[in-house]
Amino acid sequence: MTIKTRFTELFGVEHPIVQGGMQWVGRAELVSAVANAGALGFITALTQPTPDDLRREIETTTTIGAYLGERLVGAARLTLDGETGWISRVAVAPDQQGAGIGSGLLEAVEAAAPAEVTRFRLGAGHKSSANIAMYERRGYQELSRSIDTAGIELVIMGKDR
Ligand SMILES: CC(C)(COP(=O)(O)OP(=O)(O)OC[C@H]1O[C@@H](n2cnc3c(N)ncnc32)[C@H](O)[C@@H]1OP(=O)(O)O)[C@@H](O)C(=O)NCCC(=O)NCCS
Fold first, then answer.
1. Is 113 contained in some domain?
2. Is the pLDDT of residue 20 over 80?
3. 2 lies in which domain range?
4. How many domains are contained in the chain?
5. How far apart are CA 87 and CA 106, in angstroms?
6. Does the residue 29 lie in any domain?
């Protein structure tokens, strides 16, 4: 069930739920997971010892949205792990697929990576052959396989910048 309130409209979130600060817990990974679940999360500023550490924490995860007017029609996420940029949650609204939005999001998250990122990684379900072919056409190659938390076999793909 979807609950629409002034809060969901104002912040563009799916659910009227806020993840409070929670020092030592409200880090980028949690905030990113909360955002992906459709709620609003906050990084806690005093968890990090210095303003530079806080800036790095904020920059760890970037999510880029694609909009048609005010409608969010696609998104992709970049998470930094040293020199590696992990791309995830690439998704386009079903009625907007096949129009170049997914390709644009992939290019945009790659371009958003800071200079220290020298390689990109992503995971695709092993049965998602159309997606795997799409990534191959954009320079990604299979590197390994792994099982995700839902028990799905993932093809881990990568390319150098
Ligand atoms: C995968 C996805 C993000 C692609 O976004 P999109 O906006 O439809 O993609 P684009 O229009 O930019 O097309 C990218 C390529 O995929 C192809 N493609 C798009 N939709 C396709 C489909 N349903 N079946 C087969 N190929 C398709 C396009 O022809 C294009 O081919 P190209 O490499 O020759 O240019 C989108 O289909 C989606 O959200 N799927 C569901 C979620 C998902 O699977 N996410 C990826 C997780 S790894």
1. no
2. yes
3. 1-47
4. 1
5. 8
6. yes
Q: What is the mean pLDDT of residues 45-61?
A: 89
Q: How confident is the model at residue 133 (pLDDT cuts 50, 70, 90)?
A: very high
Ligand 1 centroid distance, CA of 26 (Å)? 33
Edge-to-edge strand list for the sheet holding 153-160: 61-68, 71-81, 84-92, 119-125, 153-160, 141-147
Mean pLDDT confidence for 33-61: 89
Residues with CB under 6 A from ligand 1: 90-92, 97-103, 124, 128, 130-131, 134, 137
pTM listed for this prediction: 0.80
Instruction: Tell me how far apart the 2 most distant CA atoms of the chain are, in Å.
Output: 45
Residue of 134, 136, 154 to mutate, ligand 1, most atoms within 8 A of C-beta = 134
Q: Residue 123: inside a domain, yes or no?
A: no
Q: Is residue 42 part of a domain?
A: yes
Considering only CA atoms, which residue is closest to atom 46 of ligand 1? Answer: 90
pLDDT value, residue 2: 82
Token pair in block for residue 134: 């799409």
If you measure from the C-alpha of residue 124 to the centroid of ligand 1, how many angstroms do you get, rounded to a whole number?
A: 12
- Mean pLDDT, the chain, as a whole number? 93
The sign of the CA dihedral 105, 97, 94, 72 is positive
